[in-house]
Amino acid sequence: MSEFERARPPGGGARADGGVRADAGARTGGASRRGTGGGPGRLLVAVYAVFALAAGARAGVQIATRFSDAPLAYALSAFAAAVYVLATVALARGGRTSFRVAVAACATELAGVLVVGSLSVADPDAFPDETVWSGFGRGYGFVPLVLPVVGLLWLRRTARSGGGPETGGGRPVGGGGE
Amino acid sequence: MTDALSTVIIVVALLVAAYALVTTLRNRAMDAAHLIALGVLELLLVAQAVVGIVKLSGDEGPDGSVTFVGYLIGILLIPLAGAGWGLLERTRWGSAVIIVVGVAVAVMVVRLGQLWSGTGV
C-alpha cells in the first residue's frame, strides 16, 4: 500500500541487473513517512521478532517442563518474552498508542537486562538457569543489551522527524488498540 | 544430527545473508534472486526437519527433545517471514530483513547441533 504514497526517484523504476531500485524514501531513512515500523525500522522489528520467538519458545519449554527447578528465572524468561512480543508489535504498528507502548517496552527491557544482568553476575546462585537477560544477554551475543538502546534511539528519531506520536506514524490508528 | 546437512544449511544461510547485505548496501529492494535463495533455504530446512524427526523417532537424539523439535519446526517460519516482509517493504530495508533471516537461521542450526549433541543446553 504505502509504496504508492512515496515519490519515485527521478528516472526511478530502472530494472538494471534485474534489481528494483529502492526509492528515495530508503535513502532518507524513510522515517519521516513510515513511522516506527517502516524503513530501517523493519530491521529493528525483524530482530525484535526473532527475539520474541526465541525468548518465548525458551520460556514456554522451561515453564512447561521444569518450572519448579527455577521459578524465578523461568518467570523472568516469560516476562522478557512478553516484553519482546509487546515491543515487536508496537514497533511494527506505529501510531500514537503504539509509540508509547514501544517506549515503555524498550525502557522495561533496558532496565530488565541491566538489573537481571547485574544480579546474575553478582549472585549466580539466584539464577540457576539462564534467562535471556542473564549476564547482560551473554547467551545471545549481548544483543538483548544493545537492542533496547537501538530501539529507544530509533523511537526518538522517528518522533523528531515527525513519524512518531505527532503524526500517528503515517498510519491511522484508532488510538484504543494496544 | 547430520553434519553434512547442517553445514550445507549454515553455508546457504550465510550466503543468503551476504547477498542480502550486498543488495542492502547497493540500496536495492528484494528481488527474485532473494526469493529463490530463501526458497532453497526453506527446502533445506524442511529436509532437516524431516531427517531430525525421523532420527528422533528412532533411538537417537537428545534428552530435551521438546526444545529440539521446537527449534526444528520454528526455524521453518523464519525464511517465510523474511520473504513476506521483503515483499512488503520494497526498499533496501526489505533486503536488510533478509540479512537477519540468514544470520538467525545459521545461529539456530548451530544451536540445533548443540542441542543434539547435548553440549550447552
TrEMBL record, chain B:
Highest taxon listed in the record's lineage: Bacteria
Transmembrane segments: 36-56, 68-87, 93-113
Record keywords: Membrane, Transmembrane, Transmembrane helix
Name under which the protein is recorded: Integral membrane protein
Organism encoding this protein: Actinomadura spongiicola
